[in-house]
# Entry
Amino acid sequence: MSARDITIVLFLVFVAFTLGITIWASRQTKDATDFYAGGRSFSGFQNGMAIGGDYMSAASFLGIAGIIALYGYDGFLYSIGFLVAWLVALLLVAELLRNSGKYTMADVLAFRMKQKPVRTAAAVSTITVSIFYLLAQMVGAGALVALLLGIKPGQTFLGMDADTAKIATIIMVGALMIIYVTIGGMKGTTYVQIVKAFLLMTGAAVMTIMVFAAFKFNLSDLLGDAAAKSGKGDAFLEPGQRYGVENPKDALATFYSKMDLLSLGIALVLGTAGLPHILIRFYTVPTAKAARKSVLWAIGIIGTFYLMTLALGFGAAALVGGKNITALDKAGNIAAPELARVLGERYLGGETGGAIMLAVIAAVAFATILAVVAGLTLASSSSLAHDFYANVIKGGQASERQEVRVARISALVIGAVSIVLAIRAQTLNVAFLVALAFAVAASGNLPAILYSLFWKRFNTTGAVSAIYGGLIMAVVLVFFSPVVSGSATAMFPKSDWHWFPLSNPGLISIPFGFFCGWLGTILSKTPPDGPEKYAELEVRSLTGAGAH
Amino acid sequence: MATDSANTVDQPQVTGPPTAADYVAVEASPEFAKLRKALRGFVFPMTAAFFLWYALYVILSAYARGFMDTKIVGHINVALIFGLLQFVSTFVIAWLYSRYADKNLDPTADAIRAKLENKA
# Structure
């Protein structure tokens, strides 16, 4: 069997196993709480694993390893930002949200506000963030399959050339995520994420140990070798190869590049606690204390994983080499799988060992993508059904059965739309889509959540202003940024309508979102929507009295 | 239900689920003020602390290259140590909060909740 055959067999085993779990979970899914929140029956540890499975996307695993392998130290910034961000969730959001909400992010935002405008805004924002994130994963899956299955231009696989195989992969990923969500609901999705987290952590740990073994467990030697092979010397181990690049001839370019680094830094750390697919995970546990435990486990799991990205990235730089990586994939996403092949050849014996190791890691990468897209589909279809259908259209009068039926249909529609969009968006940069999702989450959702929970005076106008203000500012700035037009790596490299100099909008759009929420609140003549509703929210969020 | 008057603000009910008046009464109680102060007194300064500490790291990465590039041992430089310290501080803050919440938040929160939900 070739590496490709092993990958396919392993992937099919994963799919069969998770589909089995999904069908089992569907038998346990009887009411809306089961479908949206897994019956709130998961333990802190289980949910911590599932959060890890939901959060550590292909962008983390393949993307960060790739950036470190090609640009060295700067990739580490992502690892740090993605981890530190969990403190916002732990200290300010997780427990209070668990106590006051029911199924979606909007439950908390609309708690003491006018339902229709706030839920509509929250649904728009949830679906926008989730779709950007979904597209990133699906486009990534399509790009990966050609690389991982080793389909080169001119070759075919099962009669498909590389382009057809990419489209087939996107459709398959989309179909599977629809099945997981419509059949298994939150229970099925959670188990898929737990299994994935286990596989990813095991795979990364085995590779990390092998990398360190190759350098006799000496970190300095690993770094030294990576720096030497990179051709950049010590600069490879220092900040500034990719972000905050210093250009001695162009002070303005240097200034913008450094601002971009700050902008990325702030979007990474504030985005996580505004991601709807992460927030709804806190509803799957019975109490706020269990929500806290799940974040603690998640911080442990995710932190360990991001530490391992250092070994994977620098390991790939040292053992595979930047040139060999860019020869296969300019973006560097192939670094971790290629590293697996080299490690397999070294430790499992010859080409067969390399093929097996590559196959295993490739299958883990696909499992990673599947678990994340399932979480995203669930978050957006929950919001469409619970916020928009049940509370905006039906004015809160929909029955549970109707609501869950609409949620399942929504998952199908969102899945289908994502498949079509992903096929059309194949040339988009994956990291850009993820960064945009984080920026929107940090600019629109986070201000609204924090004001709702901590600011008594906050009201409907403030909530709607924060969400739309942050969302629109983030999207507009990106549209006029060098990521979309006016640079060699832009979406439209041949046109130029850019005037915003940064690729990440966070530095402007996040403060703007907070500002809009504040301004909307103090300018609106409507009194705060019922002081007794804030009393209820505050008592409930802090003590859990009356929590669902 | 005769005792359920969640939609109107009136005197706290003697039995039944918490009403709007109960929530208002609890929110105004010294016990709840103590809980709010205990929570905010920990999470706000801690958030400010880790955010500034993280911002310092990002700003030094952008503007203090000479310092960040200083080698400590072998090929390990200040930038790497600083990055790893962000991991350490995250783990430590998470652990501190967990200990603090167990000791200073949960007992008060549970007591208030129990009182609200089992009004005698």
Remarks:
- Chain A has a mean pLDDT of 92.
- Chain A touches chain B through 59 residues (CB under 8 Å).
- The first helix of chain A runs from residue 3 to 28.
- Residues 99 and 346 of chain A are 51 Å apart (CA to CA).
